[in-house]
Amino acid sequence: MSPALTNFLFEAANFLVLAAVLGWLLFKPVRRALDAEQARHAQETEAARHLREEAEVLAREARAEREAAGREREARRREMLASARNEALQAAEASKRAQVAERQRMEKELQDWRDASASELVDTVGRIAAESVRRLLSAFDGPALDLALVRAACAELDSVPVEARGAALVESARPLDARSRTLLEEALGGGVHERVVGELGAGVRVTTPAGQVDATAVAVARQAARSVNRVRDAHGVSLEGG
Amino acid sequence: MSAEVFTEHVLVWLGPVPLTRTMATSVATSLFLWGALAPVGRAVARTPEGRLAAAGRLMYRFLRNLVTETVGHPSRGLEIFSGSLFLFIAGAALLGQLPGFAPPTTNLAATSALAVLVFLAVPFAGIRARGLSGYFKRYFQPSPLFFPLHLVSELSRTLALALRLFGNMMSGHLIVALIVALVGLLVPVPLMALDLLIGLLQAYIFTILASVYIGAAIRVGEEEGA
User: Fold this and answer.
1) Containing domain of residue B171, as a range?
2) pTM assigned to the model
3) How many structural domains are present in chain B?
4) What's the complex ipTM?
5) CA–CA separation, A49 vs A44, rounded Å?
6) Among A114, A104, A208, which residue's Cα sits nearest to residue A163?
7) Where is the chain membrane-spanning (chain B) (predicted)?
8) What is the pLDDT of residue A165?
9) A1, A5, A25: residue with CB nearest B41
10) Which residues of chain B does A9 touch, with a Cβ-Cβ cutoff of 8 Å?
């Protein structure tokens, strides 16, 4: 057999045997290891993909929750703002009402004080006027002021029913003289209950169950003041307390 | 080192069958590869974190990428075939640097055997991929007149495979042997390194070409099947 042919055939067989041996001892375990590694990598990649998907889902949920929380916070903020505005309006309204009430109270106090001052002024003016008139009448030897006022009161008492005249109280600035007492007893139809009230200025004030007849200097002054007030109300002019 | 270019040095006759020195170096190369790479396979299976296992995975991944780029997808049989070709030729070049060791690839019969195996693997893979008629139909395309050209093409490339590997390995080994015979041991060291580099390069070229030839037969079948 030719050495070249033998060599050729042997080399071919040797290589095939070598390939089989290497395929069994080297390539097969390495290929299995690589396949296992590739499968593990694929599994890990799949797991990572799942984790990423879960993370994306969680991220979407977190984003949605954050947006919902933002909307809720915005709504709550608006609600609180509206409530605060409402409370502020109510507080302002209450303050305004309190100011108005305080102003009205102060105006009322001022009015009361004005009324009291006017009444006191009227009384004082009445007394002074009565005293001045009485002195003036005395100086010219004229009729007594007190007697004239008693006569006026007696004339007024004619309008009071007779049955109501019995329990009358007669108040005067000074003790009644005899003439005045007689006139009053005739007008009242009986005894006279007297009382001296210096603030009346002059004249008498008769109080009966049916009403009061005031014929004093103070009453005249008050009547004058009321007349002045009527004029003031009609023309916008005030004579009481400036 | 020694080199016998066109003669076969018969070591012993076993009856009518001669046992040549190329056959002995081929067996030695195979045993060397077996002994060197079997631990790598065991290491990959048992201690995958070790350096040996990493080297094994790296080498196999290189082969797989080579085949995948050639064929278009991983092919287990082609990976084993091409990987064995690369390892055998590279191992022979490596052992050829030993004094007195003539690599089997410096023998034309050995390189012809490898080239003929590639020549046979091409129709084997093509028929397996596209069937008998499907594979041989391509020899008559685009016209039956092209059949002789296809045949000559396949024969010539097989011859080119054998001669390219034989010429490169034999010439490099012969030059180193001549330098060693003339000037001594240390002077030809750069040439020995160059010879080793050429051997590794030829192993890569032979493997690439074999993969391209076989992959072309497989891919043509798949493209037509698709």
Assistant:
1) 10-225
2) 0.60
3) 1
4) 0.89
5) 8
6) A208
7) 80-102, 108-127, 174-194, 200-220
8) 76
9) A25
10) 113
